[in-house]
Structure of Riboflavin biosynthesis protein:
Amino acid sequence: MLKRSTVLKKDSVDALAIGSFDGMHVGHRQLLKHLGANGALFVIDKDQANLTPGVKRSEYAGYPCMFFHFLKVKNMSGEEFVALLKREFIHLKKLVVGYDFCFGKHRSCTAIDLRTFFDGEVVIVDEFSYRGVSVHSSAIRDYLKKAKLEEANRFLGREYAIIGDVIAGQGIGKSHLFATLNLKVHEYLIPAEGVYATRTKIRDNIYDSVSFIGVRESTDGRFSIETHILDLDIGNVEGSVQLSFVHFLRENRRFESLEALKKEIQTDIQKARLFLKTCRFYLGDFS
């Protein structure tokens, strides 16, 4: 029933933070502060996570994730749900949830009800906001869809990143424009169409890059995700790469010729360099 994202004996877990934790954003991090050395995340998974799909949540959290599918618990009463936690984690002493946490069939129980069913410590973390806006995964998704990258990254506490598999492209980039890696991305939410200053991670190396998302209006009219590595010919790349989004440069648009498109890409590259010189410390906005 449980899937462990990292090696951890359930018997050693004495504190659980409960939620879906998609994005592992700065709001989620307020829960993690209460876990301690033997804590873990109890992830209720609905197969809808697209900011940090799968075990990516554990990487960003720094804590092991225990995945439990929503369908397994949706019809449980509140008492049955807590009994399940105590059965799975026999040394459980603390539960940590957000202020808006609900559980039990039809979301019939609130965070406060945990104190009725659980005989250990229950920590309910208050709403976490930035300038009056509550930090939620839904807000981050909305920001990304609207190309509000700075706002999305601030709520995440880091640069938004996706992972894709390198696939064959048109071949036009290398011969007439700029060589790019073409990516096929699964699971992740794709930001709004346009051109971005990005960092591209290939194996253990990170490169400054300019990336395009959208329909190739000036060539074949197909949707693509492409990234151009600045100042370096990296040759053939196979497998998966990670794109981290630093700054939104411009919207996608059609150009009358490849020469006009190439000139615009050169401008994109010069603009991108300005944003790639430094790494923004987004968590500093909350200190």
